[in-house]
Design brief:
Elements (H helix, E strand, L loop, with lengths): L2 H12 L5 H7 L9 E2 L4 H11 L7 E10 L5 E5 L2 E15 L1 E6 L6 E6 L4 E5 L8 E3 L3 E12 L5 E11 L18 E2 L15 E8 L2 E9 L10 E4 L5 E3 L2 E2 L2 H4 L3 E4 L19 E3 L1 E6 L12 E5 L10 E2 L2 E2 L9 E5 L7 E5 L4 E3 L9 E5 L18 E3 L5 E8 L9 E6 H6 L10 H4 L8 E2 L2 E2 L12 E2 L8 E5 L8 E7 L4 E7 L7 E4 L6 E9 L2 E9 L2
Parallel strand pairs: 1-4
Antiparallel strand pairs: 2-10, 2-13, 3-4, 4-9, 4-10, 5-8, 5-10, 6-7, 6-9, 11-24, 12-13, 12-17, 13-14, 14-20, 15-16, 17-18, 19-20, 21-31, 22-30, 23-24, 23-27, 25-26, 26-29, 27-28, 28-29, 32-33, 33-36, 34-35, 34-37, 37-38
């Protein structure tokens, strides 16, 4: 059986009202020429990718090829009240994902993608097609795109481009899934236990910069008024084409944002399956640091997605802390190294303040990662823009770059400070986060993360020690005050020796937790400096 006959049978199965005889007679790919063929050798493709590495600040994994296919040049058949339109796209020796623009798709219409063997790779209809742009999953060799629609449907499909990607030596499809370094740790391993909500804010970004394609990481981020606008924060250098030149609005409309691209457990699944199914394509730029990707600023890029995030994506709008003198003591980053499934890297020593190239001080947090039970998570190309979380699970910066890798796990990484991005890169809304994330000018120093529909947390200032005595190695304090309060927490033993001293913020609905595991048992004094107040509480530590 030829492929085209095989494929015709697949089309038959999708149109249950037809008989096999009618399908063969009215709609078959047999003897039909390819709609488009893109011939490029693996060597030539690699040369083109290498030539683009100096063109961008991200790792380039493929090239974008324009294409012009639509309803007007589709292979067409009409059977009963159904119309079937199909396109055959051949790209020998490489893997490719198709970029599509969809208009007027009705609830009865469906888009299908098949591989060279006639195996269904993806199906999209109105319930799982977000917005009017979509990037199909990668397929190697050749693929068939089909639009099945009602006769009276006005649905139109424009296939305006495709990626050309080398086949990974690890598998028969393009680079991304399973292509990060061997040290990386899946987010649903035990290292991610404290991040089960937070991880749902992290998004993989398929970046288009002219002909160059690469990956970055970003975060869905919350606002002080819990507006749930689809804001996404990543690194500016993800959008730089060359010094002083940024991604065009047209290219931003083809950036693809993948939600929930993660292994369901600690084990990496054998195949990608439907992990890339939750996606939104297209965004607009609201504000950026304008510092050539962190050279003299904090390297931030604030986008607004072109579509609202569906509730089915379970997106978490990450909380943040903009108090610059509150040093992150420990935490993590969650990211997509090399475009792979979601990974987590852990740090347990306090971040230090510095800058990416030394020209302006205090723009970045510097972090060193540690080995954990399942690896020694670091960062890689594709991790750019990843969030840095502190001990409270709040976003404190976005990844610019650094020396850490699986081959050099002790290297230092640099995260552009959220506090610097707030208002220090410029004086207009297009150069800072303040107007976008605090639209009602509350002056809040921090907000907690939340899901759409969550009850808003209350603010209280009646400071309470939750666990007194503290016998589990952690001191828990609630109701520190309002998010706009200037706070500092000190703890001294009964002889007056200060064992803890940290500037902090009050996050509504959250506790302040202090590690007491190395303290001696006994009575301690908790001192909270809140604006002009001094509040004290006694606590007994029993480790």
């Amino acid at each position: 059986m030829t492929f085209r006959t095989h494929f015709a049978i697949y089309l038959l199965l999708l149109t249950a009202s037809l008989t096999l005889r009618a399908q063969k007679a009215s709609f078959s790919f047999k003897d039909q020429p390819s709609q488009k063929t893109f011939s490029i050798t693996t060597t030539r493709l690699s040369e083109k990718i290498d030539s683009l590495q100096d063109y961008t600040r991200i790792g380039v994994f493929g090239i974008f090829q324009e294409m012009d296919l639509s309803n007007d040049n589709a292979h067409y058949a009409q059977v009963g009240n159904r119309e079937l339109l199909a396109w055959h796209i051949s790209h020998p020796h490489v893997s490719s994902r198709i970029y599509a623009f969809v208009e007027d798709l009705s609830p009865q219409d469906t888009l299908y993608v098949y591989d060279r063997n006639g195996k269904l790779q993806e199906a999209r209809h109105t319930a799982n097609l977000i917005g009017n742009r979509h990037t199909f999953s990668p397929v190697s060799g050749e693929q068939f795109i089909q639009l099945s629609k009602n006769k009276d449907s006005r649905a139109r499909l424009s296939l305006y481009g495709l990626s050309l990607e080398p086949l990974s030596p690890k598998k028969s499809k393009g680079f991304d899934f399973r292509d990060s370094g061997p040290c990386q740790v899946n987010v649903n391993c035990q290292e991610g236990t404290d991040y089960t909500d937070i991880k749902n804010s992290v998004v993989r970004i398929l970046v288009k910069l002219g002909p160059a394609l690469g990956f970055c990481t970003g975060s869905v981020i919350g606002t002080t008024n819990y507006s749930y606008v689809p804001y996404l924060l990543t690194a500016e250098h993800c959008g730089i084409i060359s010094q002083g030149n940024y991604v065009s609005p047209a290219d931003l409309n083809s950036w693809t944002f993948y939600f929930n691209y993660e292994a369901p457990s600690c084990e990496t699944p054998p195949s990608e399956g439907n992990l890339g199914g939750n996606q939104i394509t297209g965004a607009q730029l609201l504000a950026n640091s304008n510092d050539n990707g962190g050279d003299f600023g904090s390297d931030f890029f604030l986008l607004r997605l072109n579509s609202s995030i569906p509730p089915s994506f379970n997106a978490y709008y990450i909380g943040w802390n903009r108090k610059g003198d509150d040093i992150p003591l420990k935490g993590a980053t969650i990211h997509h190294p090399n475009g792979d499934i979601k990974k987590i890297s852990i740090y347990t020593s306090a971040a230090t303040s510095g800058s990416y190239d030394g020209s302006v001080s205090g723009t970045h947090w510097l972090v060193n990662w540690i080995g954990t039970a399942n690896g020694f998570g670091t960062t890689e190309a594709g991790s750019s823009g990843a969030p840095l979380y502190d001990e409270d699970g709040l976003l404190r910066g976005v990844l610019t770059g650094g020396a850490a890798s699986c081959s050099s796990p002790n290297g230092e990484d640099y995260f552009g400070k959220f506090s610097y991005s707030w208002e220090s890169n410029g004086t207009v809304p297009e150069r800072r986060l303040r107007e976008w994330l605090d639209p009602v000018n509350t002056g809040f120093l921090a907000v907690n993360g939340s899901y759409f529909g969550d009850s808003l947390p209350s603010t209280r200032n009646d400071i309470q020690i939750v666990n007194n005595p503290a016998s589990d190695g952690v001191l828990k304090i609630e109701n520190l005050g309002a998010p706009s309060d200037n706070l500092q927490v000190l703890v001294s033993d009964y002889s007056g020796k200060v064992v803890y001293n940290q500037k902090t913020v009050a996050v509504p609905g959250s506790r302040k937790e202090i590690d007491t595991g190395k303290w001696r048992n006994g009575l301690y004094i908790v001192i909270v400096l809140r604006n002009s107040e001094v509040i004290t509480r006694k606590v007994f530590i029993r480790n």
